[in-house]
User: What shape does this take?
Amino acid sequence: MTAPTAPASGSAQPAPDVAWFALSPEEAASNLGVDPAAGLTTAEADARRAKYGANTFAEAKKASKLQLFTRQYADPMQLVLLVAGVICLFLPGQFYTGVFLLLLTVFNAWMAMNQEGKAEASASALQSMMVVKAKVRRNGDLAEIPMDQLVPGDIVNIEAGDLVPADARILSAATLEIDESALTGESVPTPKQVDAVAADAALGDRVDMAFMNCQVTRGAGTVLVTTTGMGTEVGHISGMLQATGIEKTPLTKQLDALTNQILVIAGVALIISIGLGLYRGVQAQELFLSAVAFAVAAIPTALPAVVTAILSRGSQTLAAAGAIMKRLRSVETLGSTSALNSDKTGTLTLNQMTAVQMTIVGRRYAISGDGYQTTGQITHTGGQPDVPLAQYLLPMALCADAEVRNGELVGDPTEGALVVLAAKGGVDPALTREQYPRVATLPFDAAYKMMATFHKMKDASGKDVIRGYIKGAPDQLLGRAVSAHGPDGVEMPVAQLRDNYLAENERLGTMGLRVMATGQKDFDPASFDPNADLLPAIDGLTLLAIVGIVDPPRPAAKAAIAEAKGAGIQVRMITGDHAVTAEAIAHQLGIEGRAITGAEFRAMSDDEAVRQIDGIGVIARVSPEDKVHLVDILRKKGHVVGMTGDGVNDAPALKKADIGIAMGITGTEVSKQAAVMILTDDNYATIVKAVGLGRAVYDNLMRFIRFQMAGLFGFIATFLGSSLLNILGGIPFLPLQTMWLNFTVNVFQAIGLGYGKPREGLMAVPPRPKEQKIIPPRLMRWLVSYGLVIAAGTLGVLAWADGAYGDVIARTMGVTTFSMFRLFSSLETADEDESLFGGSILANRPLLIATGLSVLTIILATELPFLQRILGTVSLSIDQWAICILVSLSLIVVEEARKLFKIRTGDEPVTMAAPALA
Assistant: This one.
């Protein structure tokens, strides 16, 4: 941001790097070439709109559904299945195999396509926020026009209830306050002023500016439009959202890498198999059939469907717990979250200002209760005599416009805190206002930081007076005071109490509290003029009380943060609020580390930030760019980053993070669109619970993947062994037999494992490292060994049965043996330490149901005539069944021996950081 510049040749050129907030109103109007009294002419406005564009957000180019669909065929697995399906269409007797394979590619593409399409939703939500009109001065007259027709230089009137239509310099303000919490993270509306601020002021400190799409909560003002559309602060956020792509989750990346490895292994094995066939002079048609069968067996065709099913079940569990996942693959990412950055206002706190401390010089009071509920108590230090508090609570009820109805606030949050405090002390605001009607008001103004109301009352002697009640900044009231109430409620000269008063103000401030003071002054009804300038009239007031106000932490947040720390997750508070306030709340919540400002964070180099980030617990006064930068720094440290928030200013970081978490109740639509998880109860504790559920989903998912990989290695070894040993011409199973096995036994058992009960203690260990492989080398060797055991047993049955009964029975016995191997493998995988005969399997209801379905499909494939014709199988005798079962039981012998001797299959002990093979 540069210093203010003069206009070039008198033309109205709104330079994008001008610090408008550092210019006086006259300089800003001159820079934009406009007379504030008349506004722009229609012709000039049209010319500027043609030059600078409409006051709208640019929409990113969206991919069509056809483009999204065809994009899925860039996946190598899809291409192999597609080629295999086309070849089968022209092979005699394999037409239906080809059709099935092609339909399978369509199904996989459709499922993947449904996971996309969220990239531009955030910008679209921002665009939908702009259906509003603005009161603009054109040709010297006031007119109401759609806000998208505003241009730089327009003069606009705003008042309470309006949305600010564009970024603008404030020209005049009458008690103007604007809620900028969605943009800056400030927990209370910002009082606005006309005077310019420093050229290096942070976004939240630019109190002479009004920002687009923020709500005017009090007063009225006239503003000069400086920036429109994409040039505004919220437009800049829209651009950041469009520039931020959706990255693949760690699981997706590793599954992609694993699939590619499998394809390479299978490709080499297929080449060897085809080479052997050519060497032996096998006919082309048989060779093609062998290649298709091999390809179908080696490719993890059911992997996408089963992973989606397991993640979908996990997302349903999360939804029941109050966390809605928008992207299925992010369910497992949630479980690996190692750094959680949380917005303060509305996320860690209630976003309900609450009075928690009150001081009468020499006496301190604590106030219980949170938010806008009037239940709570005012307690004082023991050993001190009681002092009637009604006289101190009256200004809190009377010198306020806010109302609290059934726990809901209507009006200013700070006033709401004072009104609730009065009610807790037994002073009913509604009845009190009815008893002492207001006869005059000095509205709050940022220039003097006070508000005063005047009421007909009686003084202590019973004499009729007009009493003015004043509330505002303690230093401002102190500067106008001549006396103050002391410890016993007795009025004393202010000079005697000044030091104690300032000390109490400082004490409350260092606690991170927003400090408000109250005072009073009586007037003679005969001489009081409600239409006079009331600001000088309140000089000579009497100080009453000082109140400390805070947006309190959510009740469950502290316990949730402690649980997160126990699970090895770093928790940080990211806020637009002041550092002192944020640090105080952080310490209450148990967030460790020092507090710094966004300016200090921006001043660090990337290397310095990476070195220091572990010692930083709070970053205050942050901009949207700071939040995105923090995500980048944590990723450089190897973290899986979660980001929570509810405002427009949180949206870019929510989208950038591995897990963006939005508040469903208080969150803006933009933040919900940018996030991948939405909390339906706005409860921070739900996040930690969701992390535990995410770890459980990942734990079950790993069981399935290990089960799946062992089967794939078994398929590859069986087909390659068949070619090497020339068993059944190198075609141990027909393509449809392979697909039947993949989509029945394999799928049923995989889902049974994925839906089963996870291990205990998953939240008592650190999150798994981001770079950890799904299958480490030692585990890979065990999976290959499993595959070899399965292949050896299946090839033995195939070779013996081919010689004894012929190829049809041999293939039937072979596919039955292989199916039984897979069935027993899943039962052993259910618990990586306990024996299959230990009884825990009986408690795994999903796996038992899956096993029953698998047994049924194995029997039907050999005994049902309809399936016999499709699959090329025949009925088996009891002796043949016995051979298949006995051979497949060899896998249980191997696995039970491993468990007996406690042989680990992973590189490290079994924790979330290094899952071992079951």
Q: What stands out?
A: The first strand starts at residue 133 and ends at 138. The first helix runs from residue 25 to 31. DSSP finds 33 helices and 27 strands in the chain.
